[in-house]
Amino acid sequence: MAEERRPDDMTRITTPELADEFIEKQISSLREQIGDKKVLLALSGGVDSSVVAAMLIKAVGDQLTCVHVNHGLLRKGEPEQVIEVFRDQMKANLIYVDATDRFLDKLAGVTDPETKRKIIGGEFIEVFAEEARKLDGIEFLAQGTIWPDILESEAGIKAHHNAGGLPEDMQFELVEPVRILFKDEVRVVGERLGLPAGMVYRQPFPGPGLGVRCPGAITRDRLEAVRESDAILREEFAKNGLEGKVWQYFTVVPDFKSTGVKDGKRTFDWPCIIRAINTTDVMEVTVEHLSDELIDHLVKRIISEVPGINRVLFDYTPKPPATVEYE
Ligand code: XMP
Hints:
The chain is an alpha/beta fold. The chain has helices at residues 16-34, 47-60, 78-89, 100-107, 113-133, 147-154, 183-192, 197-200, 220-239, 292-305, and strands at residues 38-42, 64-70, 93-98, 138-142, 173-175, 248-252, 258-262, 265-279, 285-287, 309-314. α2 (47-60) links the parallel β1 and β2 (64-70).
């Protein structure tokens, strides 16, 4: 069994050598724990679950089955990247479930932020459980639990959901290979396991995905405007050397329209809000001030390339008083 608790004297994993040492040790304890049994993993494409997948592929190969549920609220290119990295490159058993319609149908007309979050979380577990029931002989469930999750859960800050809240009848033994690591250590380990830097160093992304950046009732066209504007923002930040420097950046498309003019004709479209922030602990957040040149360029690109947008606004509010996300 892997260690349950981080030893007080554990050296912070900051170098490839330390990462390799950790990986080697984990692989042998994973093999010991799992034997010839089968393991299931919900692979979101986030840093933690991706690193867990890469580690398990190395340790037990095709005894691992990954399930990637696309809830339709992922960023542009994300499901494709999960398939490419894990199925094509790492040869993982990957079940890809495109549940977009199912999620968006359930969310149709729902305006309350907390209800939206509950629907997304609940439906996610349901889809995952359905896939798990189709598989035979699974005894283990792998999770991307990391050390801060344990600490926060012990401190009563947030509940750490073991097994992601799966139904009572589905009892698996847990496999948590990055449980004693801090986030920065997970990243170093992920790189050594061969994951692309874009996956390992990606900015935080909320579980309910673009759903919280499409405030109010989600519609497919407005969601698409969020996804396309987010892709432009990410592309421009990367081109301008801001990727990896700015902590988090994204777009929001609120549910109201304003008058504009394009090619001599009246338009009545949504605004797109840009938010770019820096923080260390996410409790307090400052705003990244962009250059005038970049602002002008972003406005131009978003207006001309994203259907349904006729204004670009910049959110320069720190936290507190504003939270990072809009819902
Ligand atoms: P707020 O909006 O609370 O966000 O200031 C703080 C940080 O947490 C992220 N966030 C989430 N992450 N599931 C997550 O995994 C969620 O439901 C969730 N909501 C917010 C947010 O992106 C920011 O980095």
